[in-house]
Structures are given as structure tokens and as C-alpha cells.
Amino acid sequence: MILHEPLDFWSCSGEILSRLHRGGVLCSVIDPLGRPNLITLGWGLIGPFYHSHPVLAIAVTPDRFSWHALEEVPEFTIAVPDDALAEAVAFCGKRSGRDVDKFKATKLTPVPGQQVRSFAVLECPINLECRTYTRVHPPHLLLTPEHRQKDLEHQHTIYFAEVLAAYRCRTG
Which of 23, 90, 111, 139 has its CA 20 to 30 A from that of 60? Predict the structure, then answer.
């Protein structure tokens, strides 16, 4: 049996930002057919409340397989790894979900979400369930000038989401 141990989002926010800077976090998405995928993210923003929930913003380019899932199922889970998962995080950032089941390839354990359809990651000490409330497609001025020089079809979409739950998964 998998237990969800609630965490205070704001006590985890420093670790979330630190992991974004040091190797990235895992973003778990699911497509309309229920197929999960993991993508490594190295950028994100955290802000105060939206309907009493913290806000998280992430950026994903249409070049990534996960972008299509986010467009069709506007929910995701951010799984914040520890140092022991560095190899899995790197793998998920280098390989495409078009070609490989990243949960199986990395031996990470998917845990069904409580409030979203995407999966948490058992081995990650922090999991955040998020529901997108708006997205900003290019052209926009939210990215660096370097990113804005790319053709529009390769520029990142910014997803703003409310954090519905923060927890640690454990077996019990």
C-alpha cells in the first residue's frame, strides 16, 4: 500500500527551487489515453496563492513529447528528486517518451495522483500535484531574448498551475 504523507508546500519551496537549479525536477504528464511520461525541467517559478493554492509556472517547448500531453490533459505532477536520482533525472532529460517508457527505463515507481491523472514518483521525497489554469503560447516576452530568437514553433509555452497537493509517498 502506498501512503501520501502531506507536506507543507512553503517549507518545500526552497528545495524545489534548489533542485531546478541543480539538475532539474521531474514533471510527470499523462496523455488522453492514460500513457504517462516524465520530462526533466530546469526552469520554474513559484508564487503565492491562486484560490488559496500556491502557483507554479513551468515552460515546455512543442519540440518535447510531453508538450502534447500537457496541451491535451492540462495537469501534471512535479516530482522533486534527491541526489540518489541524478542518473534517472538526466536520463529523462535526454530521452524522448516517443521512444521509451521512462518509468520502466529508470525503474521509478509511478503512484496514482490524488487530485490529478498524472503520476507521482514514489522515490522522490516531494511530489506536487498541479492543474494548469492558464497557458501562454508564443509569441510572448516571458522568455529570454535568446529563446525568443527561435522560430515560434520551437518557443516554449508557459503553463501556470495551481498546486493542489504536496506530499511524500511511502510504502506502508
Answer: 111
CB 170 within 8 A of CB 3: yes
Residue 12, all three cell numbers:
518545500
Residues 6+ apart with CB under 8 A from 110: 28, 36, 103, 119, 120, 121, 122
Region 2-171: CATH code: 2.30.110.10
Strands 157-171 and 53-60 come out as antiparallel
What global pTM score does this model have? 0.93
Q: Residue ranges per domain, the chain?
A: 2-171
pLDDT, averaged in runs of 10, over the chain (172 residues): 94 96 96 96 90 92 93 98 97 94 98 97 98 87 69 81 96 86
Question: How far is C-alpha 10 from the chain's CA centre?
Answer: 17
Question: How wide is the angle at C-alpha 128 spanned by C-alphas 122 and 134, nearest 5°?
Answer: 140
Rounded to whole angstroms, how far apart are CA atoms 92 and 26? Answer: 8
